[in-house]
Amino acid sequence: MRDKVRCLIIGSGPAGYTAAIYAARANLEPMLFEGLQPGGQLTTTTEVENFPGYPEGITGTEMMEDLKNQAARYGAEIFPGRATSVDFSEKPYKVTIDGEKTIVADSVIICTGATAKYLGLPDEDKYAGQGVSACATCDGFFYRKKTVAVVGGGDTACEEATYLSGLADKVYMIVRKDHLRASQIMQERVLSNPKIEVLFEHNTLGLFGENGVEGAHLVKRMGKADEEKVDIAIDGFFLAIGHTPNTDIFKDYIDLDETGYINIQHPTSKTNVEGVFAAGDVADTLYRQAVTAAGMGCRAAMDAERYLSEQGL
Ligand code: NDP
Q1: Which residue from 130, 161, 212, 241 lies 20 to 30 Å from 144 (Cα-Cα)?
Q2: Topology (CATH level 3) of domain 118-239
Q3: Class of CATH domain 4-115+243-311
Q4: Strand positions, DSSP E, 11-100
Q5: Is-contact 251 271, C-beta < 8 A?
Q6: pTM over 0.70
Q7: Ligand 1 geometric centre to CA of 63 (Å)
Q8: What whole-number distance in Å separates Cα of residue 84 and Cα of residue 103?
Q9: Handedness of CA 226, 191, 170, 49 (dihedral sign)
Q10: What does the pLDDT look like over 73-99, one tens digit per residue?
Q11: Distance from the CA of 241 to the center of ligand 1, in angstroms?
């Protein structure tokens, strides 16, 4: 493995692999580290039906394998390994992999993604891919004419519930407080939708079902004198309690917004550190789609190519 590269890509979701395809074809000889979850968040979904070019749909895992092979075909060097610390204080930059090996890089593309938050219930693991999802746009289609629940009371939860109401027959929203946190307009949209029933002051205790999710055990007004256990019958359980961008190791150098996402100089992928670029969910609070992440990865590789050529590197 080389220890000095012109272009180092951190992360292996659609943003990372697309950046690798473009960087390899531009002769930057990129090196990519796959991170903790090779293939990224998409490998946790079942079928991907909204990525252009796959009329029959494709599993998330297969699609990421295709992207990886495409990047490798043009010479991108792809390795397992997680970036555990960086030093962007001076050029060339240093990135440490798995706490052991340091790679020196003229340019760095950060594609470390975001991780959906889960409640932390054992049943979320038990029913992963069998009724539990953290992405309505990815998996909602499988719940046409069925009953689903969305956990959360923020803008994401309202948006997901509204989206799901276009497919499912009934959508519960499970909200732990007695009010929604979402913006006024999103609240109105949810509260006036006859297919959505908001269960205020409800918490989820667990899920049940023989063949995938068939229902959820809830508790109303938990810890109060009139606490009450309630079961609801559902086919799908969607988490929408926020995402955590994977930016911890960059925070000493890279400008982040108040929720931890990387601030990029739109419409480019430039961060505040010259020669360090960001693409995909790690810098996207709004779209978070495979196809938008791939587009951002393309931009980042083109930005890196321009930067390296301007610097004569
Ligand atoms: P938020 O942090 O805004 O909301 C999270 C929601 O999940 C809250 O209702 C919170 O409850 C609830 N929650 C958190 N943890 C738990 C838990 N353990 N159990 C039960 N409920 C829980 O996250 P969002 O993803 O909704 O939004 C992130 C940001 O993105 C926000 O700034 C939002 O405005 C923005 N956004 C904007 C959109 C738009 O403008 N179209 C669309 C989507 C997001 P509680 O209120 O009790 O803390």
Answers
A1: 241
A2: FAD/NAD(P)-binding domain (3.50.50)
A3: alpha beta
A4: 31-33, 47-48, 58-59, 77-79, 83-87, 93-97
A5: no
A6: yes
A7: 29
A8: 12
A9: negative
A10: 999 999 999 999 999 999 999 999 999
A11: 5
